[in-house]
Amino acid sequence: MHVPDGFLDAPTSVATGVVAAGGVAIALRGARRELDDRTAPMAGLVAAFVFAAQMINFPVGAGTSGHLMGGALAAVLVGPWTAVLCLSVVLLVQGLLMADGGITALGTNITLIGLVTVVVGWFVFVALRRVLPKRPALVAPAAAVAAFLSVPVAAAVFTLLFVIGGTAPVEGATVLKAMVGWHVVIGIGEAVITGLVVGSVVAVRPDLVYGARPLVAGRTLEIRNAEARS
To answer: Is 10-229 a CATH 3.10.560.10 domain?
Structure first.
């Protein structure tokens, strides 16, 4: 999903840059409500994990490979605003130091990976959390579904950007079919990784998972009260 330099024309790249800058600015304000003594250390770990995981590509067929985007994963672990900041830092380092994506396409990559996947992943996760039984064990499956859906949505948004300002002479329908088709397959890998990581943390320390806190807050209070009585 990393968009290289020159894939979109200058006006489109500038527009996505403005969107990315605005999204990061809003996330900086929103993250103040999420960052505490539990979330702050997790944010660093999440950013490091996503950075490392995005360096690993897995084959999806026909010479195509994919890698973790991490939007839903980060949102569930540390909250949506902090997730935007984590992924933006990762993409900035990759673009500047690793030549992964392009400098002029940095705004596009942050918009697609740092904003779209986080927003879609978080809203799908919250919707599932509301309708599913209130059990911490269901946080990981909900996160996996959210991660799966976030990937083809990001691919569809890229297709829209390509139709608006793509520099290659390719029909939008062709791009949409290819991008969404392959990213549905990539989304399966995203879902597996997200479900395993979130499930592992929930099994050990559910209170560290931002998306699980509403489900364990009362349980934590009961444990503390029991300890106080003893």
So the answer is: no
